[in-house]
User: What shape does this take?
Amino acid sequence: MPTKSAKRRPRKAAKAARSSKSAARRPKRHEPQSLRLRHITPGITVNDLARSLAFYTEGLGFIIEERWEEEGKLAGVGLKAGAAELVLTQDDFKKGRDRVKGVGLRLWFYSTQDLDGLAARAKSSGIVLDQEPADMPWGARVFMLTDPDGFKISFTKES
Assistant: This one.
């Protein structure tokens, strides 16, 4: 009867062969190595957290994954939609109440869902679209909107 190590030897050899084949296909990494992230979670500061929370949950379909308070008052929420995450925090207005938000930033949300249905959901909750769903020259279907604080958002579905 073969020993356990004898049984493993063919598997190890096969695994080593697979590993060397994949290593041969993999391009050589640059030095110093580039940053390799798993995901990003943008956080945006909003003027009225309750209003923004309704916009993102009721209007767009995000769910609340986490919420936190400061001094007994809601200060922020972590939202989730599929694998995408977004953090909303209440502005403390220390930099002034007239501080402009959303300038120079566009959030791109990629989905496999029916984009026309997502746009219809947003519109039925009172959200005004900046651009109706349309096919783009690069092959994606896209619609665009602006959140209550001026942050630009594009929803896209690759064809």
Notes: Helices lie at 4-25, 49-59, 115-124. The radius of gyration is 23 Å. The chain has a mean pLDDT of 88. The beta strands are 43-46, 63-70, 73-81, 84-90, 106-110, 129-135, 140-146, 152-158.
